[in-house]
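Good morning C.,

I know you're traveling, so I'll keep this short. The sequence:
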Amino acid sequence: MTAAQNADFTEINKFTNLANEWWDKNGAFATLHDINPLRLNWIEQQTITRQNAGIANKKVLDVGCGGGILSHSMALRGATVTGIDLGEENIAAAKIHAEKTNQTIDFQCISVEELAKTHAGQFDVVTCMEMLEHVPNPQSIINACFELLKPNGVLVLSTINRNAKAYLFAIIGAEYVLKLLDKGTHDYNKFITPAELDRFAERSGFKRQDLIGLHYNPITKNYWLAQNVDVNYMMAVFKP
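The tokens, ready to paste straight into the viewer:
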């Protein structure tokens, strides 16, 4: 599979069809807004651990940035941010919001594999959140992230584990019972176990730094990090 083919436009369209809702904090992406502070703080923490400083003044790439929720928050922390996504409507929404909020963020409609051809070794931190479970070839994405990072650069990934509990919570609960997401947003067979993600990262040349579970109760609006990685989880790896 070539880099240009490493996209499922059925998956991309699930999100571009909702592009006008990216910045509605009560809309289709409300959960992403709610968990964003947790994700942002963990990314900051992982950067401090590896590089002895947070993301301020660092060059950061947000892969699969969607409408720019995480990109925007990293820019507010002082990072120089590039956000990429293959959904043209998503990038358009991200650019509009950046303009409205006077944020200077480089949003591009380009694949991470294509960007790696021209920007190898240019980023201190790369994030790839809630994306790997939507692409045909996750290994290709992680390989490109490795190329894009400087030595000692940090890659932070988030995805969903593959087991009965994850199916119950991430699909039945989120899509059918609580209707936090549209039905069909996730395909259980594309979920990725931590062991699989470890292997992807190791094949690319990364070393594991940390692993954490992301938990939330959408009814009480309570969100927290814990060692349990049965459903949603984040992994930080670094380029030696």
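Safe travels,
E.
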